[in-house]
Amino acid sequence: MRWVTRGLRNGIVTTRYPARADNYGPGYRGAVAVTDAAAASEEEAEALCRACPSGAIRRRGARILLDQGACVLCGRCVELAPTRVGFAPSVEVACTSRRTLVVPSSPHPVAGASQSPIRRPGRRRWPFRRSVHVRHVDAGSDGLEEEEILALTNPVYDVQRLGIFFTASPRHADLLLVTGSGVPGMVDALWETYEAMPQPRLVVAVGTDAVSGGFLGAGGVDRFVPVDVYVPGSPPSPFSILHGILLAIGQLQEGDGG
Ligand code: SF4
Questions:
Q1: CATH number of 126-248
Q2: Which end of the chain is more exposed for a tag (fewer CB within 10 A), N or C?
Q3: Which residues contact 1 (CB under 8 A, 6 or more apart)?
């Protein structure tokens, strides 16, 4: 009886995303945005490079370049130079080009920017007009991304309402979610899974390790399989992963904001 009264008290908890924008509230770390790429001096730019534990920040003279695909969201650079870099609160950090993640200025709005509540749907890709079946492969993850992927099926995100289902068989899968950087023991299994999927097939790299190799710095999983969408973050949130899936199947447009 208690769960009935709790259910009545809480009402519907399922998000309306992507029909309406949804976010995690103040303090959420979506991505690090560069608000002013021109450091005061080469020394300041060099200090930012040295502070970054994952090598995500590089400099050209006194200008900084930040690779959101290599960033582990530790916040050291934001503490050091809050006028030059800051956390963008948007959950929509996925993109279709790896190069887009290297930012002299971020495509994502910084904290405090207004966000449109109305979403513009993308043009659905013809083969994915109906349900989409997703196969996940852990290619050497530390387990963080798996927790976030698992959350996609809970009542808050409820991806089944969007026709997105997880499948155990690659032969039934339209879309491959890959986590981890592609450790040697998983490279063959990753390729065999990809090869077993029917065409057309899509690949979404989830998390910093899959996008860039993370701390290993050896490169992401696009060394082994063709990647259609990159979802940076360490780990990316369930909303960010869902955004990446919707981007891949064409239900959202890139750079929509949100
Ligand atoms: S927040 Fe990202 S870019 Fe900044 S220091 Fe940490 S890993 Fe590097």
A1: 3.40.50.12280
A2: N
A3: none
The Å distance, Cα 66 to ligand 1 centre, comes to: 8
Residue 151: HSE in the Cβ half-sphere, 13 Å Cα cutoff: 17
- Domain assignments of the chain as residue spans, ordered by start: 31-103, 126-248
Written as six digits, the tokens of 46 are 């060099």
Contact partners, residue 210, CB within 8 Å, separation at least 6: 139, 141, 145, 178, 179, 180, 181, 182, 220, 221
Give, in words, the CATH class of 31-103: alpha beta
> What is the 52 CA–ligand 1 centroid distance (Å)?
5
Q: How far apart are CA 175 and CA 215, in angstroms?
A: 26
Cα 21 versus chain centre, distance: 16
Structure tokens at 211: 């996008």
Ligand 1 residue neighbourhood (C-beta within 6 Å): 32, 51-54, 56-57, 66, 71-77
Closest CA to 241 of 111, 113, 147, 138: 147
Q: Note whether 154 and 186 are within 8 A (CB).
A: no
Question: Given ligand 1 and candidates 71, 80, 87, 234, which is best to mutate, with the most ligand atoms within 8 Å of its CB?
Answer: 71
pLDDT for position 187: 95
